[in-house]
Amino acid sequence: MVKRLLAASAFALGLSAFAQTQIEFWTYYLSPNFDNYIKGTIADFEKENPTIKVRWVDKQDTMERDLTAAVALGRAPDVVNLWQDSTFAAAQNRILTPITQLVNRNVLNQLYYPNVLDIFVTEGQVYGLPWYGWLDQGVMMYNPDLLQRAGVDVRTIRNTDDLLAASEKIKKATGAYGWLPPVKDPNGASFLGRFFLEGLPVYDKDGKAAFNSPAHIALLQKYVDAMKNDAIPQELLRKEAFQLSNELYSQGKAAIVVGAPTTLNRVKEANPDLYARTRIAPAPLGKAGIQTGGAMSLVVPRASKNQSAAIRFALFVTSRTNQVKFANVVPIVSTAAGSENDPGLRARSNDPLEIGKGMNSASGRLINPGFKPPKNTDDIYKNFNDNIEAAFLGRKSAKQALDDAVAFWNANAK
Amino acid sequence: MKRKAFAITLIAYGFLAPALVLMGLFTFYPVFYGSYLGFTDYTVADLASGEGPQWVGFKNIQFVLGDPLFQTGVLNSLKYLLVVPLLQIASLAVAVLVNQKLPLMAFFRVGYYIPVVTSISLAAVMWEWIFQKEGFLNWSLQLLNVLNSEGRFNWLLNENTALWAIMLVTFWRGFGYYMVLYLAGLQSIPAELEEAATLDGANAWQRFWLIIVPLMRPTLLLCSLLSTIAAIRVLEEIIVFTGGSGGPLNSTYTALLYVYNKSWGNMLNANFGVAGAAGLLIALVGFALSYVNFRLTREERSER
Lengths: 414, 304
Description:
The structure holds 2 protein chains of 2 kinds. By secondary structure, chain A is of the alpha/beta class. Chain A has helices at about 1-20, 35-50, 65-70, 85-90, 105-110, 115, 145-150, 160-175, 190-195, 215-230, 240-250, 265-270, 270-275, 305-315, 320-325, 350-360, 375-390, 400-410, and strands at about 20-30, 50-60, 80-85, 120, 125, 130-135, 140, 255-260, 280, 290-300, 365-370. Chain A has 2 domains: about 20-135 and about 295-355, D-Maltodextrin-Binding Protein, domain 2 (3-Layer(aba) Sandwich), CATH 3.40.190; about 140-290 and about 370-410, Periplasmic binding protein-like II (D-Maltodextrin-Binding Protein, domain 2). Chain A is built from 18 helices and 11 strands. Residues about 10-20 of chain A have low confidence and may be disordered. Chain B is flat, with a radius of gyration of 24 Å. At the A-B interface, α3, α4 and α17 of A face α2 of B.
């Protein structure tokens, strides 16, 4: 009797396994803040696809480590949220399934902004579905009291040169900093971004590094001088500009933050009064007149055993409907095509975050991914940042620093 | 009789077994496998595609030895060793002080131990305030007229001071731990010895150098060894204070940060072969220093 019962239950289990596919979905730093949104999206998906069950895991700073370990152990997750640099690295190391093997490229072109889709193309193949995006410049958030005390009219700040000039004025008049530009963030090579935004090329036409022209040197020198005069803080060499801006703005020690309106979430928590007084304006751009930015991706590891269910889910999460919903929880930039006309992305009140959403979330078509990183990225960026740091600390001239960085780059980019 | 001895041995091993299995699995196996990887070509791409490590002999060791960044790292780690004698002398001295039977001593003992149990990220916030340009350290130096307001600087952003500043944090964090070990050692010194010395007219300084220090030698050596190894392997502080960059200008780039950056720092570009080779070389330095430590004790022992 017992044997028969066991056999029956084993049979039933087998049947349900047949009827149900379970997939594992890893996100990056989204819990606990966005639990409701993610759980809601999963529930919607499971309702539409009763044969697929989604198990959600939120990974934080161990994401890449865990992913490599899971793949090596044969227990790969099915859908993973990576950011653009890690998507590139994972694709290079052949960890990912080319999305184009699962979905036709023409379909992808219709679903997402082509400029964003391009970010995830490596060697002619798409490796990630674009999920939520951001614009590095985004919007300009400012503390009107500090600007007023310094006699700075916000309408006169139209480009990055104006921003630097205003920062100098604000620092002199109030003691607070103005704008905190990323010059040497720990990840990536921020100053290359500065070149790019000012319309200065990173590569020459043969693909060699070429950022040591007199114009490049003059630009670096301008920022070096700004730091020397304490118009921008030296701490920028040690801390991410985003983090430092957040800290100092919330304390009233910085007047301007240029970036994604999501920054305001932290200000709202840390200093609600300042949040209420914060004003928003369009972001001043560099001479190139472009907005750099990027996006998160959803990828399917090659080792995933449920690739068709995985891609079905990834398409669902990155669909316009779900990205617009996400933007209404937190002002991300939707990367789904057609978002610029989506009524769900307009500001509905005078709250700074709502205004930010209205100015920002529908601008996915403006995301410019900048330049492609070189191969051997880690070593090359490390050397670049070391040289930039030497220039800022006065140990090398701007020319020497850029010459050295270009030489190392061209010798080591394989 | 023999059988009984055998049974006792067996039981002893039985008790040891759980710990031995765990150590074997989580200490010895990784040590041997990591050392083996140092002689192989093994990257994330190999790992993901299920290809095993390829034996390449001394190629990685050669690469690491020739890498200027690793050389900088080893030099900085060796500089870091300077924290060891200072830390040991200070914690022994304070252990002697708080070993007195005076009111409020328990309070001091706990106080000195608090940094040991404080998380490094929390401690970092405090120390950043101390080291910044408008921070406590510069303020104190200005009060003492060592520095004027023009000369103020951020201690973590000057390549001549950053490593020393971080060493101070290590000192602060390790101090209480070694003090407790010394306290335990001090309790085992018979009170009669000190009393006899006092009767013979020895002053406090003589009692410290001629009675406490010699009797504390085993503890001193244990603590020196522990802190030497800890100094060679310093990593947490560097990551927290420099965001893993080892800046400014690589002045805080330590040997272990090199290993970390080649493996865990950016996992998707990890090169386990190079990281393993570098780890092996650091272990060799650690062994050499431990050997020096042991040699010093042995001579002292034979003297007695």
